[in-house]
Amino acid sequence: MTITQLQYVLAVAEHQNFTLAAQKSFVTQPTLSMQIQKLEDELEIQIFDRSKKPIQLTEIGRKIVDQARNIVNESGRMQDIVDQQKGFIGGEFRLGIIPTIMPTLLPMFLKTFIKKYPKVNLKIEELTTETIIKRLNEGHLDAAIAATPLGYDQIKERVLYYEPFVGYTTENHRLFDKKELETADLDIDDILLLEDGHCFRDGVINLCKVPKNAVDDHFQLESGSFETLIKLSNEDLGMTLLPYLHTLDIKESERKYLRHFKEPRPAREVSLLFHKSELKMQIIEALRGVIMGIVRGAIAFHNVQIISPVQQ
Fold this sequence. Notes:
Layout: H1 3-15, H2 18-25, H3 29-43, E1 48-49, E2 56-57, H4 59-75, H5 77-86, E3 91-97, H6 102-116, E4 120-126, H7 129-138, E5 143-148, E6 155-168, E7 191-194, H8 199-207, H9 212-215, E8 222-223, H10 226-234, E9 239-243, H11 244-247, E10 258-259, E11 265-275, H12 281-295, E12 304-306
Parallel strand pairs: 3-4, 3-5, 7-8, 7-9, 11-12
Antiparallel strand pairs: 1-2, 5-11, 6-9, 6-10, 6-11
Helix pairs in contact: 1-2, 1-3, 1-4, 2-3, 6-12
C-alpha cells in the first residue's frame, strides 16, 4: 500500500470517473486503474462499484476513503515538520473566501502578504461556505475565510475580526430620520436581500428573527451583489443592510444614507477556517497575523452582538 495509491483512490472518489481522476492526478488512466486494482487485490475488497455510472463507492469503500483521507493528510505533516523546523514559510497555499468578504478584504491584505511572504504561492478562489467546508474536508483547500461560527467538528475557526451590519436607507424610507437603528426597527418585508446561498443573507434573516422559510412567503427583490442592492434602494424599492467594510468604499453622495445600529451592534464574526489536521500552520498563522494587523486599523468596534450565519 502506498500514499500514491491512496491519492488515486481519493481522486476517483471525488470525480466518480477514472479518466477524469487520472487527468487531475497527471497520470494515464491505465496507470491509475492498475494502482487502484493492486490496492483492492492487496486488501481483498472492492472499493468502487464499476458497474454503476457514475462510479460509486461500495460500503467498505466509503470507510476506506475516510481512512485514506486521514492517512494522506497525516503524510503531509512530514514536510510541515521540516518546514517549521527550518522556519520556512512558502510553497503552494490554497485559500477560499466567501463572496461577501472577498471584494473588501482581499485588496486590504493581499499586497502586504505577498510582499512579506514572497515564497508563498497563493491560490485564491471565491467560494460559498458550503463549498469551502466540502473542500476543506476533502483536502482541496488549505484554509478559508468565512462568516462564523459554523460548528463543524472537523473544521477549526480562528476569529479575525467582527464586522457590524450597517443600514442603508434613502430619504423616502420610514427609517431615514433615525440617527441609529435598532433590531426592532427592521421589517423583513422591506429589506432587499442577497440571493439565496449567501451566508450574509442568512445573517440578515436571523437578525430580523424571521424563520428562513417564512421569507419565501413575501415578495422579495434579491441580488447577487451589494452594489445592486444599493442601486435598488436608491430607487426607493426598500432598505438594505451592508457589512461595515463595504461601506468604506461607498460614494460620498450616498454616505448620508448609512445608519449604524445602537450598541451592542449586530455583527458578523469573520474567521480563518482550516482542517483539524492543522497542515501548513506556519502559513495559516502568517496569514492571520497580516490580516489582523491590517483590519485592526479599519474596524475598532468591540461592543457587538454576533449574528449567526447558519440558517435558524
